[in-house]
Write a structure and sequence with these properties.
Length: 338
Amino acid sequence: MTLTEHVLLVDVGADHPLRSTKAMSVAWTVFWAYIGVAARVGLTEASTAIEATQAAPSILTAMGVSFFLPNVFGCFIMGLAQPLKTQRLEAFWTGLTTGFCGCCTTFASWELVLSQQYLGHMAVNATFMFFVQLTTSMAAFLGGRHLALLYNGTSAFEARRRDVQAHAAAMATLEDADGKWRALAQALEAVAPAAADACSEPVGAATPFGLAAAATAVSIALAAVYSGSYLAVAFGPPGALLRYGLGLLLNRSKTFPVGTFAANVLASVIDAVAVLAMPASASGAVWVEKALMTGFCGSLSTVSSWINEIHSMPTSSVGYIAGTHIATQTAVLLLLGT
């Protein structure tokens, strides 16, 4: 047992409500969402500070000061987390990837800037910007994943086994007339590490609920006193939880996760409506920009989960990439262009 597991495990009864993996996943997601939004805000401010030291706008400005570094960093952590996941700490890892990585990255802000560039007759720049952010995010994800695999040889074997098993299971639903894919998936499931099946104890128990409650109290107090970027942090968890719920309800397909697609498109549309309905007053604009756009929509949308799904697809991901981008741009351009 690792030190992290020892700290997070508690002894509760088999029928204790805190044993619910989903309930603990929600609590961990809320806790990590606050940290994820804070990381995005911090990286944005760091990018702005770096730009202020340059004689001319650098690549950070060209790629998007408010989202380029956060998206790259969040995808790196997402990749790092994948091979290190354990069933024993399933809720913790769900919270980390859905809460921190999902809220550190933002699809809506990225697509909004692309739409504004398309409308500003900068289509070439917008197209390059899309592909550079896509490839750098994927490279960061792969870099984090390979670093984790190098750290733990057992995780490397298990990650490969899970990847092949997931591919076989997906193919079994697509084309499996002779049952070979189903047989392969069952064989790989049978050789899963025995320790994973034996680890049935709850993870975290009261710990994530306490941390989530404390983080909520602190963030609300800071937002009430200081406003500004603290509003973004305070409104991050509602967006993350809506995305998590959409994923649970709609992500049935491995080749086109509708839940993530809906979250990214919805957040981008809300961002566009917010731009059109921006209040004239300074205080109202702060609430819309920070609480709604940066906090809620930035956390409702995600690049890290999107990249993880693209990497995990058993077949070509081109349709999912193009479908998400085209649907988002169509909706946002129709709104902003009218």
